[in-house]
Each structure stands twice: as structure tokens, then as C-alpha cells.
Amino acid sequence: MPGERRLGILTRLVGPTASGMETKLLCAVCVEVTGVTGAGIMLMSGDMPSGSVCTTSTVSELIEKLQYELGEGPSVDAHNKDRPVLEPDLADPKVPRWLAFSGPAITAGVRAVFGFPLQVGAVRLGALTLYCDRVGPLTDDQHADALVMADVAAQAVLVLQANAPLGTLASELETGGDFQYVVHQAAGMVAVQLDVNVADAMIRMRGHAFAHDRRLADVAGDVVARVLHFDELDLDD
Amino acid sequence: MSRESMLAKTLIELADTLVADFDVVELLTILADRCVDVLDVGAAGLMLAGPDGRLRVMASSSEKMRFLELFELQSQEGPCLDCYRTGQPVVNQDLAKVNGRWPRFGPEATAAGFRSVHALPMRLRGSIIGALNLFHVEVGTMRSADIEAAQAFADVATIAILQHRAKLEAQVVNEQLNQALNSRIVIEQAKGMIAQREGIDMAEAFARLRNQARERNLRLADFARQVITGTRGALDGSAFDGSALDGSALDGSALDGSAPTNSVLRNRP
């Protein structure tokens, strides 16, 4: 049975011609196979997110961004706990969790989220996040498909990266993924504006985003677009 | 202890080495020693193929065995090599009758006191990774139950080694992935600093960063790291061309000279 699931997924990924694979298909096929509302794949470095490989919609993109910015959420937990993390009712969870993540996710229409670790043997890469716009658990079939999908995605990421020149990110990951480069560019700019190091600049940007109830990526975008200048802000900004 | 419980104990012992601190040589040494302890053989040894496909002696139950295995490799003939080349077991070879097959190895093994030799492949489906050598001090056929048990030991070890290799490879690639991502982060931060200092856009900031790194013969990520930690001036001042660089990191004067050029990365945000 797991063999059939895997075959079905692989056939959809590479198609009848088997002429290469786009990373966005990893998430698209996951949604197609499981029938959930959306999916995203996050890479983790240590216990922190480093960016997303693919997303299927603006909402799944937001889920990845929130987790990247806040360092919490289903993918972060699935990766760190090394097991699936299932929340069938985000607005009314049995265990209170993700205090910062849940509000904006619910506002965007997320009702249930499920994280599955991406791993090959003992090597942990990140996690797959599925979300639904309705409350309710995954069926056994959906759960089994998600596990196989996470496994396939983990191997796909490693195979792609194994073929990349040393020191560079695989071009498929580079073009298909979102590694929040704008946040790091903005951190460099704010560091110069405030004459502080980049770590402190990042803290200042996070603080500003939190105080103004904005996403870190949006604040960073404004910095890079030179709409927002940290050296011209009042102290309580 | 009965033979069956000794076999079972050996398989458990082999499986046990897979859990933590996996060490290929230790696993194969246990395998060689147990073949001698549990099976009716005088000596046992293991050879594994390296990345170049050539066999290497990995473990031997005795010094005499080790010498013979090295001799096999040196003379390029013997049961282990035949087994590795064909992927098929070589069993019950009476050394008194094999001089045509192994003209150099045969006499050497006989002189060392052995009378018959066997070799079993270490293989999983299509991959042959090495071979297990079993030498007898008496003439005679090896019991088929002993051959089966030895092959079972070899199979357990083969699976362990292949899994270990796959795991190592995944680990290495994952580390490379994280390293590549970390390099990109540092490069983006340095781009931001240069863009702010110079009042230029990210594409131009990247072109300048890259040119500066090239002029100094530094990897882009290493140079970017110096830029964001502010150590660049100090490092470059002594090691490179001092004059233009001993000022503050990436001030205008150092950057204006290098005209941006086209780059495959230039259009990136």
C-alpha cells in the first residue's frame, strides 16, 4: 500500500515524460493528493526556519511567513519534535499553543493546520504544513498521503541540492523558493541607519513590526523600498 | 551455549552496533571474530570496495589472515577477488587442487597452514560492496548451515553499511544546504549595508560587493561576512593593498573605483 501511494505521488510529480521537476509541484501535488486547502514546505536550519521551498496560495505563503518571522507554528514544532503535529481546530485548540502565530492565521481563514517533518534517516530538513479552511482532523488516508509526501519532498530537496555546486543553493530551490532575502537586506540597511550590528537591526525591525501589528516581511519591504527609515523614526516607534 | 543461540546472539550483537556511534571497522571486526567463534572456520576476513571500486582489507580474525588478504590484493587473485568480481559465492575450494586457478595465492595460503577457502559476497540487490573470506585449516566441505549463517552475518553487515553510507550522504548534503543558505543571508545583509551607505539599489550593491570580493580574491560569502562584522578594513589593510582599504569598511572611496558589471545574479532582489 505505501508503495502504491508513493508511485501515485511520484507519477504526478514527474509526469508521464519524467522530464525534470519543479519544486512548486511538491506542494501542488500534495494539495491534489490530500485534498486540503493549501500546503507549504519549510526548510529549517537548527531549530529556526530558513525559508520555504514552495507554497500553493497566498494563505499558505502567509503561514510560512508567520512561522519564519515568529519562530513558532506547526512546521517549526513538527521539525523540532520530530513527529507530525496536528491541530484540527486552530481557533479552539485542546492545548494552548502558537500564541503569536494563531491570530493572524485565523484572520486569514486558516481553521486547521498539520505539520509533518521532512527527514531522510536521522537527517531533519524542515517540515510540510497542510492547512484547511474548515475545522476538522485529517482522514487516515490524508494523513498517510501527507507522510509519504513529506518523505518524497525531503528526498527531492536533498537530490536537488546534491547536484548544486558547492556553496550555492540549488537553482530549483533558489527560483521556486522564498528565503526572505528582503528581510536580510533590510537588516543590513537598518544596521547602517542606526549604526548597530545586523542582529540588533533585526531586533529593531521585529519590535517595530510587533508594535505596529505588521508582518516583518512587509516592514522589511518598506525599508528596502526606502519608504521606512529607522533613523527617522521617533524613539517609541 | 547451543549453536542456534550463538548465531542469534551474534546477529543481535551485529544489529546492536548499528544503534549509536556506528563504526564500520568495528562492525566488520566483530563479524570476522564471530565467524571464527561460531562457525567451524580457522580464520575470517573482510574486504570492502572503496569509492574507486578497489577492494581494501577492513578486518581479519588473525594476523596470518590479514597477511593473506593483503597478498590476495597484491597478486590480484584469490577467492575474495573472484567473489567480488562475479558477485557469486566461492565455496569449498581445496587448496591442493586450485593451483591452476590461483597460482600465486594457492601456495601462499597452503604455506600459511590453510587447506580450503571460501568467500561470500556482501551484496544487497544490485550493489556488491565487498566479500567475506573464510579459511579452513582442514580439507573438507563447509556445512551448508554454516555457509547460510555466514551469509546471514554478511547480509546484516551489508545492510548496515549501506544505510550508514546513505545517512552520511544525506547529512553532508543537508549541511551543504544550510551552509549555502547561511552564505546567502550574509550576502543579503552586506548588500543592504552597501545599498544604504552608497544610496544605490540592491542589484548595484551586489555588483560592488562581488567586484570587491574578486579584487581581493575572497569568496563572496567570506567577504560579505567581513563587511557585516566590520572587520574588513583591518583584515584587508595588512594582507592586501593597504592604501585604499585601511579606512572604514566599504566607504565610498573604496567602492567607487569598481564599475558594476553584468552578472547572472544581478537581477535578483
Question: What's the structural blueprint in terms of helices and strands?
Answer:
The complex is a heterodimer of chains A (237) and B (269).
Chain A: H1 2-14, H2 24-34, E1 38-45, E2 48-55, H3 58-70, H4 74-81, E3 85-87, H5 99-107, E4 112-120, E5 123-132, H6 140-162, H7 171-176, H8 181-194, H9 198-211, H10 216-224
Antiparallel strand pairs in A: 1-2, 1-5, 3-4, 4-5
Chain B: H1 3-16, H2 24-38, E1 43-49, E2 55-60, H3 63-75, H4 79-86, E3 90-94, H5 105-111, E4 116-124, E5 127-136, H6 144-198, H7 202-215, H8 220-229, H9 232-239, H10 252-256
Antiparallel strand pairs in B: 1-2, 1-5, 3-4, 4-5
Helix pairs in contact in B: 1-2, 1-6, 2-6, 6-7, 6-8, 7-8
Fold and architecture overview:
The complex is a heterodimer of chains A (237) and B (269). In chain A, helix 9 (198-211) crosses helix 10 (216-224). Chain A has helices at 2-14, 24-34, 58-70, 74-81, 99-107, 140-162, 171-176, 181-194, 198-211, 216-224, and strands at 38-45, 48-55, 85-87, 112-120, 123-132. Chain A has a five-stranded antiparallel beta sheet, with helices on both faces. Chain A is globular, with a radius of gyration of 19 Å. Chain A has two domains: 2-172, 2-Layer Sandwich (Beta-Lactamase); 181-227. With 237 residues, chain A is of the alpha+beta class. Chain B has 269 residues and is of the alpha+beta class. Chain B has helices at 3-16, 24-38, 63-75, 79-86, 105-111, 144-198, 202-215, 220-229, 232-239, 252-256; strands spanning 43-49, 55-60, 90-94, 116-124, 127-136. Chain B has a five-stranded antiparallel beta sheet, sandwiched between helices. In chain B, strand 4 (116-124) and strand 5 form a beta hairpin. In chain B, helix 1 runs antiparallel to helix 2 (24-38) and helix 7 packs across helix 8 (220-229). Chain B starts with a helix and ends in a 13-residue tail after the last helix. The model of chain B is unreliable at 233-269 (pLDDT under 50). The interface between A and B is medium-sized, with 34 and 35 residues.
